[in-house]
Amino acid sequence: MSETTYLQAIHDALREELLRDPRVFLLGEDIGVYGGAFKVTKGLLQEFGEQRIMDTPISESAIIGVAVGAALTGMRPVAEMQFADFITVGFSQIVTNAATLHYRHGLAVPLVVRAPSGGGIHGGPFHSKNPEAWFMHQPGLKIVAPATARDAKGLLKSSIRDDNPVLYFENKFLYRRIKEVIADEEEVLVPLGRASVYRPGRDVSLITYGAMVHAAQQAAEILATQDGIEAEIINLRTLKPLDQAALTATVAKTNRVVIVHEANLTGGIGGEISALLIEHAFEWLDAPIKRIASLDTPTPYSPILEEAFMPDAVKIIAAVREVMHY
Amino acid sequence: MPEEKNIQELGSMKDILQGAIQREESSYRFYLEAKARSRTPTEAALFEALANEELAHKQKLTSQLEAILAQIEIDRALSYDVY
Fold first, then answer.
1. Which of A28, A35, A128, A308 could serve as A119's disulfide partner, Cβ 3.0–4.6 Å?
2. CA distance, residue B74 to nearest chain A CA (Å)
3. pTM score, two decimals?
4. Helices A149-161 & A6-20, crossing angle to 10 degrees?
């Protein structure tokens, strides 16, 4: 049985939902003839035709605006941002229109915006952003960020079937680096709003998502070997709504927390998680919560500086040792 | 088994890694065959350990090749975006 890459899992989820539901269609820059900048949609134009796989002009505001309009008529559009960085150009369509229509008019907006995000690829400040926290502040949106091929597939299929606007942050560093066996005949659906225990442990909780799940795993293996520390890794999978029950449960078990995300530190999701744990799990904490994140600068072009800028296993290990010795 | 190439015949980094992976695979099979011909448990254990080392080398190189191929695709996407 062959392994499915993270990228192929996204492709397969799109294809399966296109086959399952005639209301589903895709739109974005060069997703048709070219097959997408990263080739996620390769072959779909040939299979489904230009009525369902639409190449658009270079205008993210138009792409998302059209998608919102189509969703209001009962379609289920999946819009691709070529890079998550460009979502800024469609920001108002998401937060002003898509996110508020249910509250203003009682209307469902079954829209998915796919946003290839993340650094570690030498893409510099315009092709490496992790902008998920900007949208955390806006009521009316759901936000997901898969770390594994199975989650990439299952979360995307669930997002397409959801009646709310969902921002789907796929990590492009993981596209062809992560893979696992997913049987062709298996229907993979991962519910939104539910975290998973990626690695069970008793001593400290590493709460993370996206590419940092794999950095946390590297750190956990080293900590187990060198320090005898068993770290539990919580893979959030959905960032909004956060799985508060899973967060509280892991703190009650380990009593120590390190939050890891690739997005910049200040105003990041780690701050929200930290506040939630202080409000709801304070009695279980035996040490201050630590946050490991990218530095508060734009992503550097220089590979050496980018390495220093981003979180990695070494930084996670140092933070874990600090909370363990508190 | 495909014929191994000399280093001079190998062009890109991808070719070099693929050649190296092939060599590790070849060494792995060599030690497995040596193990099968062993006359004592000590010999068998030695050749098995050596075979496993070659297998680990192969896995490491395969993983490095996959990372390089992944980055090549990212670089292509980044270049396309510019032009």
1. A128
2. 7
3. 0.90
4. 30
Note whether A109 and A167 are within 8 A (CB). Answer: no
Phi and psi at A21, nearest 5°, equal -130, 115
Tokens 């203003």 belong to A104
Tell me which amino acid residue A283 is.
E
User: Which residue among A158, A181, A204 closes a domain?
Assistant: A181
Q: Are residues A124 and A235 in the same domain?
A: no
Q: Is residue A190 part of a domain?
A: no
CB contact under 8 A, B73 and A37: no
ipTM above 0.90, yes or no: no
Instruction: Encode pLDDT of A115-134 as tens digits.
Output: 999 999 999 999 999 999 99
**Which residue does chain A place closest to B65, by CA atoms?**
A177
Q: Kindly state whether residues A176 and A207 are assigned to the same domain.
A: no
Q: Which of A11, A127, A214, A261 is catalytic?
A: A127
**Token duo for residue B19:** 């050649």
For residue B80, is pLDDT > 90?
no
CA–CA separation, A56 and A190 (whole Å): 30
- Tell me, what's the pLDDT at B11? 66
Per-residue pLDDT tens for A225-280?
A: 999 999 999 999 999 999 999 999 999 999 999 999 999 999 999 999 999 999 99
- Residue A193 φ/ψ region, left for φ over 0, alpha for ψ in the -120 to 50 degree band, beta for the rest: left
Out of A34, A82, A172, name the one closest to residue B74 (CB).
A172
CA atoms within 13 A on the CB side of A138: 23
Whether the CB of B71 is below 8 Å from some CB of chain A: the reply is yes
Do A203 and A105 belong together in one domain? no
Which domain covers residue A93, as residue numbers?
3-181
Whether A83 contacts chain B with CB within 8 A: yes
